[in-house]
Write a structure and sequence with these properties.
The protein is mainly beta. It has a single domain (6-95), classed as Immunoglobulin-like (Sandwich). Helices cover 8% and strands 57% of the residues. The protein has one helix and seven strands; from the N terminus they run βββββββα. It has one helix at residues 88-95; strands at 6-7, 15-19, 23-27, 29-35, 39-44, 47-62, 67-80. A seven-stranded antiparallel sheet has the order 1-4-5-6-7-3-2, with no helix packed on it. The longest helix has 8 residues, at 88-95. The radius of gyration is 12 Å and the shape is globular.
Length: 97
Amino acid sequence: MNDHPIKFETNPYHRVMMSDRKSLELSGVKQIDSFDANEFLLETSQGWCIIAGRELTLDKLDTEKGELSIRGLVDAIEYLNNKQGKSSEGFFKRLFQ
């Protein structure tokens, strides 16, 4: 698990493109706060975002453009009001209720 934020430049526009729940491309990413095979926590130009799934990997990263690509099975994408609202236990508890 990576617990050290990866910060990079970004543009003000945020785009999410997903193909077959196996490939996810994002733009407008400001930083990757943490990630592992089950969850990515990102700050985007539209707020904090959690991507949950299985066997998630960081496929491509362009820090100059604020773009990244994630591979694996995507189960959920959730936007948070703030990072302090992030709670993995709470997120997964709500997800599987």
